[in-house]
What does this fold into?
Amino acid sequence: MEEESKKIDKKTWKKFGSLYTFLLPHKWIFSLGLLFLALSSLTTLAFPLLLGRIFDESTLERINDLGFILLGIFLLNAIFSFFRIYIFEYVSQRTLADMRQKTFSRLITLPLTFFNERRVGELNSRLSADLTLLQSVFTTTTAEFLRQIVTILGGIVMLSFISMRLTFFMLALVPVIAIVAVIFGRFIRKLSKETQQKIADSNTIVEESLQAIQSVKAFANEYYELNRYTGITNDVVKVAMKAAAYRGAFVSFIIFGLFGSIIGVIWYGLILKESGVISGGDLFSFVLYTVFVGASIGGIADLYSQILKAVGATENLMEILEEEGEDVSLSDGVIPNQLKGSIHFNKVDFHYPNREDIEVLHDIEFKANAGDVIGLAGASGAGKSTIASLIYRFYDVQKGEILIDGKDIQSFNLTELRREMAIVPQEVILFGGSIRENIGYGKPGASDEEIVQAAAKANAMEFIDKFPEGLDTLVGERGVQLSGGQRQRIAIARAVLKNPSILILDEATSALDSESEKLVQDALQKLMSGRTSIVIAHRLSTIRNANTILVLKGGKIVEMGSWNELTQEKKGVFQNMLEHQFELKS
Ligand SMILES: Nc1ncnc2c1ncn2[C@@H]1O[C@H](COP(=O)(O)OP(=O)(O)OP(=O)(O)O)[C@@H](O)[C@H]1O
Ligand SMILES: [Mg+2]
It folds into this structure.
């Protein structure tokens, strides 16, 4: 809906034009397609002419000859049309694939900042709906557009050869009606879109209330939902009936207007024939050309509106293609495990790019030697996960610097840096495939043996073995078919497989009962040894052995020290948290 109402300015047209570069690699085959298109249009145009001739012939021999020629022309037309359609489909599919690949490769390398502001559904529709729209416009629609123009111009030339007077008469009638029909048609389509929208709205109500069925029932709001639904479904009827009235009028108009105008042409043609200006065959050809030209004019207006829609879609797509992606190419000759893993936050200030006015971290200063365990504690929203994101360089800091192995984090190649790190995130979201694929994600191309070893180290074999399909068990969309603790152990196994120099554990034990927690803790201890680890914990006991604990409050470090040092401070923030930790835990 938006596309149509949005004003299309020059710049958008230019962007749209620049998308034609996707056709360049296929220019030869595309030209071949155009050739077939021209040939098939010309053979189509020859048809009314010859048919008219047959009518005027009196000898059987000539009639036979012309009949054969006509048949031959149809055969040619059939062959040309086959190649025209096949070639344009080929070019069209190839350019679509190229555009898709380019867009996806851009999307997937864009920084997280971009994704914070977008919705996945919207981006997905860019890739599917918008691109499909564009694809058809670039090839099929363009070709059709040309074909219709050839038909219109060629048709009018043929018409004027038959009779100038009749041509003028026809041109005064048919195009006007055809264009009115198109405008009418678009208006009706808008109405039917409105109906679609209403139906979509009513589906949203069903979806939302069923998804939250427990809340609906808990609040005894069944009737409330039912009323909302009834209201909107009744609206659907109203809008649909309005559209139906216009559609009925439209069809009446077409029947009366279009056929009426053709009858007009025939009527005038018959008068001309009576006065001997044209022959019966000419009149027959003329009427056929009129139908061709009329249909093409109607068609071309429709194609034009399709092109407009596609131009609108370009804008959204171009936004993605114009964004700057992260440099994720791996510099040559990088051998993993090159980092020792020391981390130094040097007076770091940070706010999220999409919320400039809220400073999330202020003057953060700490050092972790290679192999150290750093514990992060602090209330919800204090900035703990943000520190983890900065170590990963998901975002750049605004003030201060982060040094890894004494080198500014910005001087590393991103891929190189991130290959040296692993995170067991706060919320583990798995890919929809098997357990094996999900663990293997930590090291593409890992052998079965390595995967089993990693799973064992993560104490995950214990539950994997209980599934009949073992490692090939499917985890369901985003991993929903596994429990929280099982998902975490898969994430740990993945990290084990990656064998990073820097490890980040974000709340890794929050979702577990004490039995599983022990298993996970145990797995984590194994995983942490020999690497620099950043452990974010609400359950403070998990960071008892950390070399240094940072206590964050409102984005600032308020206390720092070992467990013993911090607990000696009787009125300290950490000591206070420890005393209240059961309340904080949730
Ligand atoms: N992507 C984001 N864009 C903008 N603001 C964000 C983003 N992520 C977090 N924030 C904000 O930054 C602040 C710190 O968030 P952070 O996730 O670091 O907290 P946390 O200490 O990990 O909390 P929790 O213990 O609940 O996980 C919060 O105020 C939050 O609203
Ligand atoms: Mg967090």
Q: What stands out?
A: The chain has a mean pLDDT of 83. The CA atoms of residues 570 and 576 lie 8 Å apart.
